[in-house]
Specification:
By secondary structure, the chain is an alpha/beta fold. It is built from nine helices and eight strands. 30% of the residues are buried. Bound molecules: adenosine-5'-diphosphate (2 copies) and zinc ion. The site of one adenosine-5'-diphosphate has 18 residues, from helix 2 and helix 3.
């Protein structure tokens, strides 16, 4: 099964993708994570993306389409994948349609996580992640059992993203409404959109998703 997670920054795409990875064996493909890895490595690609990411804008379609195309060719995607943060513009969605057809992949669902703007600001400014295993946390909504220590791997190397501040979040929300939301219409025409109420608690969102995925 191959799915897309669609939703504004902070909607819970990454959180849910990580939970479902374990249940369904689909691999999470996060363009945000891939781009942050390029920035951290100081590659040419990372150098090109860094300033745009810090401002809350979108990096070029060409760049992310290239990243996803080579990632999807890797063996672990054959058992199914969840696209998290891609596509983010209509041209990216159109390129993905062609790419999947060429590579012989089917798209099963576009899971649209709907969350109001105001709670998103709090979700993003309270977000932190384990720098060692990637587990996601929140200051209020998902605290580790022991403060500052990862439940999963025991590391105390917790990280916050440079772009998770209120000012940048507002720019990212604007980019979502202007450039990403029109994708719902694109996949609506293909009958693939499954709306999910993302304003509810993490495990309730998971239950809704499991009902859709079967
Ligand atoms: P996205 O990948 O869509 O940007 P994340 O999955 O990283 O969003 O979630 C953003 C933050 O909100 C994280 O700190 C996460 O722990 C928290 N979070 C995720 N889903 C929920 C939810 N349903 N209710 C409250 N907090 C949530
Ligand atoms: P979030 O879900 O919290 O918005 P992501 O980790 O998905 O964050 O993305 C972080 C940043 O990386 C975005 O603000 C954007 O600059 C860049 N980015 C990620 N995916 C894409 C994409 N598909 N197209 C363009 N830019 C992207
Ligand atoms: Zn960890």
């Amino acid at each position: 099964m191959n799915v897309i997670f669609l939703g504004p920054p902070g909607a819970g795409k990454g959180t849910q993708a990580k939970i479902l990875e374990e249940t369904y064996g689909m691999v999470q493909l996060s363009t945000g994570d891939m781009l942050r890895a390029e920035v951290a490595a100081g590659s040419d690609l990372g150098k090109e993306a860094k300033a745009v990411m810090e401002s809350g804008g979108l990096v070029s379609d060409e760049l992310v389409i290239g990243i996803i195309s080579s990632r999807i060719d890797q063996d672990d995607c054959k058992g199914g994948f969840m696209l998290d943060g891609f596509p983010r513009t209509v041209p990216q969605a159109e390129a993905l349609d062609v790419m999947l057809k060429d590579k012989g992949f089917n798209l099963d669902h576009v899971l649209e996580l709907q969350v109001d703007d105001e709670p998103l600001i709090g979700r993003i400014t309270g977000r932190f992640t384990c720098g060692d295993c990637g587990e996601g946390y929140h200051d209020m909504f998902k605290k580790p059992a022991k403060e500052g220590v990862c439940d999963k791997c025991g590391s105390s190397n917790m990280k916050r993203r440079a772009d998770d501040n209120e000012e940048t979040v507002r720019a990212r929300l604007q980019a979502y409404h202007d450039q990403t939301a029109p994708i719902v219409g694109h996949y609506g025409k293909q009958g693939l959109v499954r709306p999910v109420d993302g304003n509810t608690a993490i495990d309730e969102v998971t239950n809704q998703l499991k009902t859709i995925l079967g």
